[in-house]
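Title: Comparing notes on inverse folding

I've been comparing how different people in this forum approach sequence design from structure. To keep things fair, I'm posting one structure and asking everyone to reply with a full sequence. Here's the target:
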């Protein structure tokens, strides 16, 4: 049964080296990371525009989800009406 031992040694040699979570964290701090900075300075007009834009996007998303739900439920009810038990 030497083929089993050859299979095991082949698997050992082909196994990739796994990096532990601690090494990932250590290398993350030492690597070339992009530093994102935000100065937090926005005019009240810009903040108002951002709020309006977000509320419009949320409203459109909500309307889209409601329409999809209504269409889906109506098709289910429609086909359930034709089902014969």
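Reply #1:
Here's my take.
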């Amino acid at each position: 049964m030497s083929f089993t031992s050859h299979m095991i040694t082949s698997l050992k040699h082909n196994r990739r080296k796994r990096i532990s979570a601690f090494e990932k964290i250590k290398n993350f701090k030492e690597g070339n990371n992009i530093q994102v900075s935000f100065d937090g300075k926005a005019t009240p007009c810009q903040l108002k525009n951002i709020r309006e834009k977000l509320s419009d996007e949320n409203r459109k998303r909500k309307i889209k989800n409601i329409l999809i739900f209504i269409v889906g439920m109506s098709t289910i009810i429609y086909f359930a009406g034709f089902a014969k038990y």
